[in-house]
Specification:
Elements lengths: L1 H10 L4 H12 L4 E3 L12 E3 L2
Parallel strand pairs: 1-2
Helix pairs in contact: 1-2
Length: 51
């Protein structure tokens, strides 16, 4: 997961915590998150739904 977080950090402008959340999401094959955080929109593999 650390390697995935490092990869994401190099490609996207996410805060450190968001990078870890994105890596965990992708590593667990989750494609959608519910969040107000628009930074997730920069990760093409993750669809963000605003609550």
């Amino acid at each position: 997961m650390v390697f995935k977080a490092h990869e994401i950090m190099g490609k996207h402008k996410l805060a450190a915590g968001d990078t870890i959340h994105a890596a965990m999401t992708l590593e667990n094959k989750i494609t959608t998150v519910v969040s107000y955080d628009e930074e997730f929109d920069s990760v093409e593999e993750i669809k963000r739904i605003e609550p």
